[in-house]
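Page 47, continued from p. 46.
Same chain as before, 173 aa.
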Amino acid sequence: MRHRVAGKKLSRSPSHRRALFRNLVTELLDHEIVRTTGAKAKELRRWGDRMITLGKRGTLHARRQAASVVRRADVVRKLFDELAGRYAARPGGYTRVVKLGQRRGDAAALAVVELVDRPGQDGGKGGGGRGGKPGGKSGGGKPGAAGAKASGGKKAGQGGGDAAPKRRRAAAG
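Result:
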């Protein structure tokens, strides 16, 4: 039985698991939204909440503890200067996990981890970036491709490259 055992192993060695979550929590605090698998998202929520709690403490010791986990100094500054003030009145629950559906290649459950009350977050849009809208089937590229066609022009990173992968998928399937 796993009584009082915190954290998930995720079939990784302890050093690999620590490196994985250090990278993920750094990106979460920097971009304020991260897309990953469901199991990693649930564990990342614990790491992210813990870092924001350290930021709210604001002491030198808390800053050094956060710097031992977060990979970049500019993200540590953002954590203590910007995020700590934003969540000063909130007693916990700084992150949200939104399930996206299954990944196309291996049917892994995908989820978005995002900071609650982040700027640029509209009530009904549910995110931004590559996450797509909550409740979408694959969180994939079809809505973006349709938007590029509707606008009449090609956006950066979309357009000419979209046609070739569609043909390959159709031929392989």
